[in-house]
Amino acid sequence: MERLGGPSVKPYQPEGLWREVAMPQSNTRTYERGEGDELWRRSVYTYWKRAAPPPSMLTLDAPTREFCTIRRMSTNTPLQALVLWNDVQFVEAARAVAGRVMVEAEGDSARLAYLYRLCTGGALDEVRGGALASALGEFRARYRGRRRMRALVRSGESPLPEGVDVEELAAWTMVASAVLSSDSAIVKN
Question: How far apart are CA 84 and CA 157, in angstroms?
């Protein structure tokens, strides 16, 4: 649901982060995570505590708000890749895209092309398509009948898409995560 304005929201953050930097008498000593749609609002609505800004936003080059910036630097570091692969918000985003692709497209090659177009706005070439198809096969083999697959698809608060095989969703989630964390998706000129 598109909604403009409103109060600040508190999305996922590491547990205990605010407690580490708070004064004992502070009324913002504990972080109370939001619920429902508050978890997925645009980052412009995220509540910032000066002493403990959202770690994932800082890692992805968000300005510290100590001064105004005209243009943000664009970097691509290993630490950013770890955030894009492991932060709950990004795992949920990959799962949502994977579920959408599985519902709206038929066949692996059509799904891969659709996934790539949704995430990057571009067309999937043969080299990348082959690499993604190979990765999909490996993820299918890895998650078939395994418990860790369930932890992946149940990460976060967003509901699972209905009528989708959970093992297949786990494999597609990993492929979607790879595309979402690729240079083509995160660096726009």
Answer: 17
